[in-house]
Amino acid sequence: MRKTLIFCAVISFVLMISSVSQATVVYGFDQADLVGLTEYGEDPAGQTLSFIAVNPNAVYGSMLGDVGFMGSLIDLTIPISPMIMVGSGSEDLTGYDEFAMTLFNDNDDTWMVRLYVDDGGSFLTSSSAALAPGGSVNLSLDIVSVDLVDSVGFMISSDRNDTFHISAEVIPEPATIVLLGLGGLLLSRRRIA
């Protein structure tokens, strides 16, 4: 019985490692990356990113994600939608297949959000998604053919003048996921023994 359990654990570990190596390589922000994001662009001029803070309380309740962003979208020429970009500086995305983020709406209004990569003046963007009050959205953008970029991040837009409160979730690195899986195998082995 014990040999069978050890054999199953080894096979499970090998399968887990091989599936991770064949899986899509995802670029995501860790905690330090999220805290370091800044305003990258805006349209029209005059948008503001008031603060970027770790675990602030949102105006309409507790923050849902790991790092929060608050700012104002202002456009006196509505119906043109004001937009702000929140992103990093230059990044090397060589070897990544996709860029992914999970965003949460800590506000009582719906916002339009999408991912972007500024590839030297030409922008790659994901599809826009409506981020409903108290809701979340998982966004992804194919970046297989991208290497060095000027900025990577997300855009927030609206059809009204208002203040947004949005938070983002940290994306764990693949190595962290493998370690968690290995820990689970070891714990299950101890319980059976």
Which key terms come to mind for this protein?
Jelly Rolls; 6-stranded antiparallel sheet; 3 helices; alpha+beta; single chain; 14 strands
State mean pLDDT (0 to 100 scale): 80
Shape: globular
Q: In CATH terms, what is the architecture of the largest domain? A: Sandwich
In helices, the fraction of residues equals 10-25%
End-to-end gap: 10 Å
How much strand?
35-45%
Structure description:
The strands form three sheets. Strands 1, 3, 4, 7, 11 and 14 form a six-stranded mixed beta sheet that branches. Strands 2, 5, 8, 9, 10 and 13 form a six-stranded antiparallel beta sheet that branches. The model is unreliable at 175-182 (pLDDT under 50). Helix 1 (2-22) packs antiparallel against helix 3. Helices cover 24% and strands 39% of the residues. It has helices at 2-22, 31-36, 174-192, and strands at residues 26-27, 38-43, 48-54, 67-73, 83-87, 91-92, 98-105, 111-119, 122-125, 129-131, 136-142, 148-149, 151-157, 162-168. The chain folds into two domains: 1-25 and 172-193, no CATH class; 29-170, Sandwich (Jelly Rolls), CATH 2.60.120. With 193 residues, it is of the alpha+beta class.
